[in-house]
Amino acid sequence: MAAVGFVSFCASGCPMMSWLRPGTAKMVSSQLHTTARSATKDYYEVLVLGGGTGGITMSARMKRRIGAGNVAVVEPSENHFYQPIWTLVGAGAKQLATSSRPTASVIPSGVQWIQSRVEKLEPDKNCVYLENNQKISYKYLIIALGLQLHYEKIKGLPEGFNSPKIGSNYSVLTVEKTWKALQGFQEGNAIFTFPNTPVKCAGAPQKIMYLSEAYLRKTGKRPKAKIIFNTSLGVIFGVQKYADALLEIIKSRDINVNYRYNLTEVRPDKQEAVFENLDKIGETKVYQYEMLHVTPPMGPPDVLLNSPVSDASGWVDVNKETLQHKKYPNVFGIGDCTNLPTSKTAAAIAGQSGILDKTISSIMNGKAPVKKYDGYTSCPLVTNYNRAILAEFDYNAQPLETFPFDQSKERLTSFHMKADMMPFLYWHGLLKGYWGGPAPIRKLMHLGLK
């Protein structure tokens, strides 16, 4: 059961990119319709902004600490998504409907769900403003707003999704398009991208590449396919141990990797993708594609841009060890919206949640926080339809593996943890606030040794 810590949940659950939000609810017709809820009070002891992974997890923990009636969650979306499974949805191995549940079903019982959007934060006055100028005050504020996808920043891409050749596993509206593009592939270039911005689940852009390559081999189309990974980064993965393992896979499968190339434009009528060379200003290269999987640029939610709680880039400015805000002692951040120097995954949120719970408890009791977050995160690097590498690491990009064996090896058990165990543990463990990362299990597995 402890294996939930290994999963790279890839997101904060609900937030969608702004230009796609209006149609989100139409995508999953089986969802229960929930009635809009507004605040029944204008003050809560703990106010949580965001109903994604971090927000739901912390609201569950705060409910147990101070009582449900003292906690509220602000979240506009009617549906909560388990996004890690979208890697497998895009590869045809899972159904999209399995990734979604009504938000009402994941809000802890008794906790107030305020179904609205945050319009403004005023931490100097201990309040936030929602839609319709509704003001909510708080004693403690937890910011868990996730991040925002920016497909619109790639010229031609939003309309390009009408093409059967383009998909993206990062949105509920486009993940099934990935599978259709893969099924329709005949011959030519299959291109996978990584943008020049922070991203959630940094391993996901290449997971779908490995799965697509495996699918093309299975269907006999691989000889006519050229697999291309164009990444804005200068390395295949930020932790050397796992990078070495991935480079071996890339070499054995004849995958072409181009470093420091960033997608700037899509021309769907010509099936062309335009990339800028980040090392040579002004230089671009045009690629023909038969299939294109796009990882969009990402950034902080609009409400955090130029906010008192954010740094110059718009990320919530928190202490990397305690998750307490650097300026406002009653404000805290968790997950993708923060400037924590670690990968933006819900495996990281699991580790952060346990620390943040203890941080807030200490502050409520008038004590200084003592527990420290070490930057733990993980990424299950799916490399085939029945294999995965379990990458776990810390702030220093050093492996922080839980099992007493080499997790950089492709394993069937690692794949089944990702595909079968993790969804159950996500809904019934992490979101209910019972999982704070695998550190205790790691200590047990390694007999107390580092």
From TrEMBL:
<keyword id="KW-0496">Mitochondrion</keyword>
<dbReference type="Pfam" id="PF07992">
    <property type="entry name" value="Pyr_redox_2"/>
</dbReference>
<dbReference type="GO" id="GO:0005739">
    <property type="term" value="C:mitochondrion"/>
</dbReference>
<dbReference type="GO" id="GO:0106436">
    <property type="term" value="F:glutathione-dependent sulfide quinone oxidoreductase activity"/>
</dbReference>
<keyword id="KW-0560">Oxidoreductase</keyword>
<comment type="function">
    <text>Catalyzes the oxidation of hydrogen sulfide with the help of a quinone, such as ubiquinone-10, giving rise to thiosulfate and ultimately to sulfane (molecular sulfur) atoms. Requires an additional electron acceptor; can use sulfite, sulfide or cyanide (in vitro). It is believed the in vivo electron acceptor is glutathione.</text>
</comment>
<dbReference type="GO" id="GO:0070221">
    <property type="term" value="P:sulfide oxidation, using sulfide:quinone oxidoreductase"/>
</dbReference>
<dbReference type="InterPro" id="IPR036188">
    <property type="entry name" value="FAD/NAD-bd_sf"/>
</dbReference>
<feature type="domain" description="FAD/NAD(P)-binding">
    <location>
        <begin position="44"/>
        <end position="160"/>
    </location>
</feature>
<protein>
    <recommendedName>
        <fullName>Sulfide:quinone oxidoreductase, mitochondrial</fullName>
        <ecNumber>1.4.3.2</ecNumber>
        <ecNumber>1.8.5.8</ecNumber>
    </recommendedName>
</protein>
<dbReference type="GO" id="GO:0071949">
    <property type="term" value="F:FAD binding"/>
</dbReference>
<dbReference type="InterPro" id="IPR015904">
    <property type="entry name" value="Sulphide_quinone_reductase"/>
</dbReference>
<dbReference type="GO" id="GO:0070224">
    <property type="term" value="F:sulfide:quinone oxidoreductase activity"/>
</dbReference>
<keyword id="KW-0809">Transit peptide</keyword>
<keyword id="KW-0285">Flavoprotein</keyword>
<comment type="similarity">
    <text>Belongs to the SQRD family.</text>
</comment>
<keyword id="KW-0325">Glycoprotein</keyword>
<dbReference type="GO" id="GO:0001716">
    <property type="term" value="F:L-amino-acid oxidase activity"/>
</dbReference>
<dbReference type="InterPro" id="IPR023753">
    <property type="entry name" value="FAD/NAD-binding_dom"/>
</dbReference>
<keyword id="KW-0874">Quinone</keyword>
<keyword id="KW-0274">FAD</keyword>
<comment type="similarity">
    <text>Belongs to the flavin monoamine oxidase family. FIG1 subfamily.</text>
</comment>
<dbReference type="GO" id="GO:0048038">
    <property type="term" value="F:quinone binding"/>
</dbReference>
